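@channel sequence for tomorrow's demo:
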Amino acid sequence: MLVPDISQQSDAEGRLANLDIRLPDSPTPFGSYVEALQTGNLLFLSGMLPVIDHRPAYVGLIGRELDVKAGQEAARTAALSALAALRNHLGTLNRISRVIRLGIFMATVQDFVDHPTVADGASDLFRDVFGKGNMSVRTVIGVTSLPLGVPIELEATLELKG
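structure tokens (generated this afternoon):
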């Protein structure tokens, strides 16, 4: 399989197209909150879940119902929802200067220790879309449960172009 050369693409929308990634519909809140809030040149993204059409695409604990690979796919699905919410809020991903911070929460069994590998499912997608030079800091936290029984919740802080 040929991997597209995205190194020459200078913007997020171009990289997304070259990666042949079609974003899902922007997710809608499951409660009383907004998905994105901008203050100055910072944009804060609420917790994104691995949902498709307002329904969980993955359910269960990583290390029990889901293995590491499925956890990575759930993280990638949550990241795709995040990108869709960002595009919906901003009109284009090209308004993003950089991803500052990703927070990735995952519901796991108590003795699970491979959190960083699972979180890479989201981080790698953000790296591919926004460029390797725009890698963010990241916090990865294991928890006992998440909304709707999903295994992943992702939050982000982004800097917008002036």
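heads up for whoever presents: The CA atoms of residues 9 and 15 lie 6 Å apart.
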